[in-house]
Amino acid sequence: MTNSWFDPVLISLGPLQVRWYGLMYVVGFAVGSWLLGRLAKSGFWPVPKEAIDKYVTGLIVGMFLGARSFYVFIYNWDYYSTHMDEIFHVWRGGLSFHGAVVGMCLATAWFAKKYKVHFFQIADCMAVAGSPGLFFGRMGNFINGELYGRVTTSPIGMIFPGAGPYPRHASQLYEGILEGIILAIILYFVHKREKHYGIVSSLFLVGYGVFRFIVEFFREPDSQLGYYFGGLTMGQILCLCMLPIAGAMFLWARKTKIPNPLLAGHAGK
Length: 269
What we know:
Blueprint: E1 9-13, E2 16-19, H1 20-42, H2 52-75, H3 77-80, H4 97-114, H5 119-144, H6 171-191, H7 199-215, H8 234-256
Antiparallel strand pairs: 1-2
Helix pairs in contact: 1-2, 1-5, 2-4, 4-5, 5-6, 5-7, 6-7, 7-8
């Protein structure tokens, strides 16, 4: 089986191209914006609804700066140190989700300070509204034929262009389902039931870290990095780093005890 029928270019207008990869990110942010509007209507979003566009713009900037920086300087600096002109060629792929999280958290901290609300109040909204975007991002990876899995004899294996003649795990689909659908559903239900802000965002870090750690066993490691400590990938190491951060956030949330308005009689304001 093969995915070679996918052309990564959706539309070509002379030198201008619209790629599926970029379109998936646009769809992901559009869905996230819509969900933030729903959270504002329910009362979970703590600032005026009109501020959503500003927040999403900040997230986009933070995400791309963080994602690209991590990929360039942590995943592939040996290459980019001699190809500096390609650092901003994001349409070719090369984004780190762990870096994206850092960038979006910085954008969230700035936004929360600007509107004088707690970081957790915005971060929880980001977790609920942003997690479905992971599905679309992974679909972009799949159509691009990148971040494919390891060679497998399983009947669900796929032959990816440029990855050799052997079937491989479609690890992009595994991640899309686990991180972008299952995790999104979990966070959606938890945000309506947890008494305090901060639990949802810490749960996001745990859920993503665990799901990504598992999928990394099926995903082909970056060729320029390989394995560390007897078999761990860089992705797994970064996921392990997420867990103590999530634990610290959980304890911080229990200490601050910022009430969830959905459970405090303020919904629908």
